[in-house]
Amino acid sequence: MKRKGFIWDALGTTIFGVLFLYGISFIQIPDLFNPISKTLEDFELTDLVFSQFRENPPYNDDIVLVNIGNLDRAGIAAEIEIINKYKPKVIGIDAFFRKPKHSDDPFKDTLLIEGDSALARVFKKVDNLVLGCELHEDAEKEQVDSISMSHPMFTVNANTAYLDMISEGRNTFKTARNCVLKQKVADSVILSFPSKMAKIYKPESIKKLEARHHETEAINYIGNVQTVDKDGSPNSKIAFTALDVDQVLEEKFEPEVFKGKIVIMGFMGPNFNTYSTEDRFFTPLNQNYVGRASEDMFGVIVHANICAMILSGDYINQMPETWSIVMNIALIFINILFFTYLYFKLELFWDGATLVITIVEALLFTTILVYIFDIYDYKLDFTIATVALFLMPNIIELYYGLIKTSEMKLRKKFNKTPSKDNIVVKPVDDDEE
């Protein structure tokens, strides 16, 4: 098929389509459709790789998780006393101890003071202790301007690292996919809780992290621990050795389980058999990847996954945003060339053919994205091209029915001089010579 200006029309349709998509992105979805949008807004295709395609991983040998449950400070001190006997390399505690405990009841107050003293005393015995702190951000300047730390009585022998995690923004609780592994505070840089433990355990692992120069990192999850879900079933994809409160206090474990390891202590429910939503996150490992049913992972286990990623150097890479936009627009342009050809060629079969092609091509996009992410840990983003694909027939019909028709009318109105394209050459009659 030969058509004058075919490439220029395809380019014009592409520009119109991109502007159209940009415009509709500002349209507020009516409340009637909110349940659908809320169900799908926190879903990414790469979640399928984590939750469905990847096999259950082997146990991580570097990290051991310990549940502190609802223990008071004396109970946590007792756990650490036992753990420290078996010579771990690092002990990290996902908890704050902001101030000494007190009570109006003299007897209870005595117990609380003894608990604080016991905890402070056992902290001093740990060779490599990591305690969490909290970052405070200046909303106007969009930068961290202060830090909240545990009480000085607990930090004498401690390395400080921040516990803050990013889900899809600091003030929005969604699936925990990304994290910030280091933050600039004033003239210094402070490491995150998992980064600090990894640095102590394996110093060279931080060099690879720093060489990436990324502000955020996608979390390359490997697995969970054996705790119950909302329906009472255990988690899948178990990757870490984890000990419950009674297992530690009663020393129901093999002596070598802690030796030379990173021990991360934090809340994982009152015990592993009791479901709790406290400090629990949605992650890509969630089996209910559309319309999340319940949070599937405690925060301390998210930290363990991040730490394991740093130690292994197995990061997720992503195409830079600029190149991603260029790639999506290129795909839109190629599709518009193809669909426009069909628009003028198929006529009666246009609607059916475009529907079939759209479905096939969307499945192809999905397959490519999932395959590359699963095999190479490389994240592509076909979102704009996929949305454009489903709207392609409407975009083309709008362009030719609205933009192109208006252009032709304007040219006819304002350009009275015939162009070479519309001059009719009449044959010469011999009698007129």
Q: Could you characterize the architecture of this molecule?
A:
By secondary structure, this protein is an alpha/beta fold. The chain has 2 domains: about 130 residues; about 260 residues, no CATH class. The strands form 5 sheets. Strands 1, 2, 3, 4, 5, 10 and 11 form a 7-stranded mixed beta sheet that branches. The C terminus is likely disordered. A hairpin with a 4-residue loop joins strand 3 and strand 4.
Question: In terms of topology, how is this protein built?
Answer:
Blueprint lengths: L5 H19 L9 H8 L5 H7 L6 E8 L5 H13 L4 E4 L12 H18 L5 E10 L4 E6 L3 H4 L2 E5 L15 E2 L2 E4 L2 E4 L1 H9 L2 H9 L4 E2 L21 E4 L1 H5 L12 E5 L13 E2 L15 E2 H14 L4 E2 L2 H25 L4 H27 L1 E2 L3 H32 L19
Parallel strand pairs: 1-10, 1-11, 2-3, 2-11, 3-5, 14-15
Antiparallel strand pairs: 3-4, 6-9, 7-8, 12-13
Number of domains: 2
Order of helices and strands: HHHEHEHEEHEEEEHHEEHEEEHEHHEH
Number of helices: 13
Gyration radius from CA atoms, angstroms? 30 Å
Strand content: 5-15%
Total DSSP E strands: 15
Major β-sheet profile? 7 strands, mixed
Quick recap:
The chain is built from 13 helices and 15 strands. The protein has 433 residues and is of the alpha/beta class.
